[in-house]
Design brief:
The chain has 20 helices and 26 strands. It is α/β, with parallel strands linked by helices and 585 residues long. Helix 2 crosses helix 3, helix 3 crosses helix 8 and helix 12 packs across helix 13. The N and C termini lie far apart (75 Å). Keywords: Ligase.
């Protein structure tokens, strides 16, 4: 056993994150690895798999994929809903050195087609709905040569038959039929349970392509290496203190994969991961209770949904098994964080993390510390996203659209100076796939390392804490000043009739001026006595009371802001700017 364990240690040019799954299969073979919740027939059901079974099934799939003609270095779209097969397939792809292309279905048909045109996949693995869309919209047309259909239920008879029929109609093969046709025991080896010899790669070699959501611009394929994945796993172990044997309620498919890699069970609730605000809180609470989950990963939108649901009950829900809650993906709202803390034990923190698809996680801050910054945030100081985690270096550079080829220390701005956030660390990606111009714009070389320009603005304070001030693209420049979205908006969000605001730039008399779009609270929307002019007068008083907002004197009420599907927090200010200009013209 010692010899086997030695082989699983990470060494240069011998990288594969599946070594963690192999380790768990040896040390805790019968421990729960994945549980998937499904609501069927008016009740909740759960499918489970342990570590050794997950390891063996992914071995079998990796072998079958090779026999089917998919080999190391080839690329495949993976559009499979969270399920045991999703986990087994993803680990199988990594084991075989096949590069999965992961996209957010919520990004829209047009963006999805662009993603597949850029990534030029060799294969397409998906559920029937994904294959139908593939045919209708021409996804991967001209590059995809291998097709695989995955039907919920895996090898169960009805599901298997349905998958086989569908696959024969749409082309390709079902996963069930693939495993029957190419079993491991028929590969010429004497033992039917001989394990798959996973591919070992250079730690900087491409292991996956993850497309950004496109919520703040055009989706781009981020090239992931095993080194990046290893850095993320290390951060979860060291900075978030996640230990083997824990159970995680995972609401985001990519993060859920880290569970088995950490020796932690991933409990997947029945929800659409691309639309967390539509999740049924009762399902999530039930899964946490059934498995006594110690960790919860949820974005701010879901934190808001769960907090509202849990505190509205009498008595309020208590999630006493949770040791930590990790929130990432969008700026957190302090009221939602505070509300959710009432569902937790006093010693359980909500750890808000900052990062992006290109580099995650970068910082963290506990809820008790975050809530203590509310006064500064409400007065235009930005949102505190905490201190850098181990191995991450954060710098602030002057705001510019110019390409910066090479890093030098003279680029760093002094403390408490707003500029673009730049990060360095092993979890920082080196390039976008087939997007040389975007890579040049976002990356700064430093020897054999790369710094990433986040496209976010912020500053470091005297304690080394990072404060977010919004996207670089969302700043509003006038003849007199530069205004930043988060500091300005949070000042006005304190008004009792305001749900949220969005700063945009418009042209008035041929001059660029700031304008604030306002979304009212539900109470204000139905108030028959609501007076728009009175609200605008009150907002002008607020504007003059803060140096960040003295130049804001134009306001418009918008019925409902256009926002991203996943987070319900990333406001499409570009759309609001067009709307506001039309309203003024």
């Amino acid at each position: 056993m010692t010899e086997v364990m030695d082989k699983l240690k990470a060494t240069p040019n011998q990288a594969n994150l599946c070594r963690h799954l192999a380790h768990a299969a040896i040390t805790t073979p019968t421990a729960l690895a994945v549980a998937v919740q499904k609501y069927r027939g008016g009740k909740l059901n759960y499918q489970e798999i342990d570590f050794v079974s997950l390891h063996q099934r992914s071995d079998e799939i990796a072998h079958a994929l090779n026999a089917y003609g998919l080999t190391s270095g080839m690329k495949t779209v993976l559009m499979v809903t969270p399920s045991i097969d999703f986990f087994a397939l993803t680990f199988a792809l990594f084991k075989a050195g096949i590069v999965p292309i992961l996209v957010d279905p919520g990004m829209g048909i047009k963006n999805l087609k662009q993603c597949f045109n850029e990534s030029q996949p060799d294969a397409f693995i998906g559920i029937p709905k994904a294959h139908i869309a593939r045919v209708l919209f021409g996804w991967g047309k001209g590059s995809v040569k291998k097709l695989l259909t995955v039907t919920e239920g895996g090898s169960a008879s009805n599901a298997g038959v349905a998958a086989n029929i569908f696959a024969s109609f749409i082309g390709g093969m079902s996963l069930n039929k693939l495993l029957i046709r190419y079993p491991m025991q028929n590969n010429g080896l004497s033992k039917p349970d001989t394990s798959y010899n996973m591919v070992k790669l250079n730690d900087d070699a491409m292991s996956a392509i993850l497309f950004t959501s496109g919520s703040t611009g055009t989706p781009k394929g981020v090239v992931y290496s095993h080194k990046m994945f290893e850095a993320q796993i290390r951060a979860l172990k060291e900075d978030y203190a996640i230990k083997p044997g824990e159970r995680d309620l995972a609401t985001f498919p990519l993060f859920s994969l880290f569970g088995p890699a950490l020796g932690m069970a991933s409990i997947v609730p029945d929800m659409d991961a691309s639309k967390p605000i539509k999740a049924n809180p009762d399902f999530i609470f039930a899964a946490i209770e059934k498995y006594q989950c110690s960790n919860l990963f949820a974005n701010p939108a879901l934190i808001e949904v769960l907090g509202l649901a849990g505190t509205s009950l009498t008595p309020a829900i208590k999630l006493n098994s949770l040791k930590r809650v990790i929130s990432a993906g969008a700026p957190a709202t302090l009221p939602s964080i505070e509300r959710f803390t009432h569902l937790l034990s006093a010693e359980t923190p909500i750890l808000t993390s900052y990062g992006a698809t290109e580099s995650l996680p970068l910082t963290k801050i506990a809820s008790v510390d975050l809530l203590s910054t509310s006064q500064k945030t409400d007065n235009g100081g930005g949102i505190c996203v905490g201190a850098a985690i181990n191995g991450v270096e954060i710098s602030i550079i002057a705001i510019t659209e110019d390409v910066i080829d090479t890093w030098h220390e003279g680029l760093s701005l002094p403390i408490n100076t707003i500029g673009e956030i730049v990060v360095k660390g092993d979890m920082v990606s080196h390039q976008y796939y087939q997007r040389d111009a975007a890579t040049a714009q976002a990356k700064i070389a430093q020897g054999n390392q790369v710094r990433h320009r986040m496209g976010d603005l912020g500053y470091l304070d005297e304690y080394g804490l990072l404060w977010m001030c919004g996207r670089k693209a969302h700043r509003v420049e006038t003849e007199k000043s530069v205004l930043f979205s988060i500091p300005c908006e949070r000042i006005f969000n304190t008004h009792r009739l305001v749900k949220r605001t969005a700063l945009v730039g418009v042209k008035i008399n041929h001059k660029n001026v700031p304008l604030l779009c306002i979304e009212l609270t539900d109470t204000a929307k139905i108030d028959k006595n609501f007076d728009e002019s009175r609200l605008f007068s009150a907002l002008k008083v607020i504007a003059l009371a803060h140096k960040q907002t003295t130049t804001i004197s134009h306001f418009l009420i918008h019925e409902q802001f256009p926002v991203d599907i996943r987070h319900n927090a990333k406001i499409f200010r570009e759309k609001l700017a067009v709307w506001a200009q039309q309203e003024l013209d």
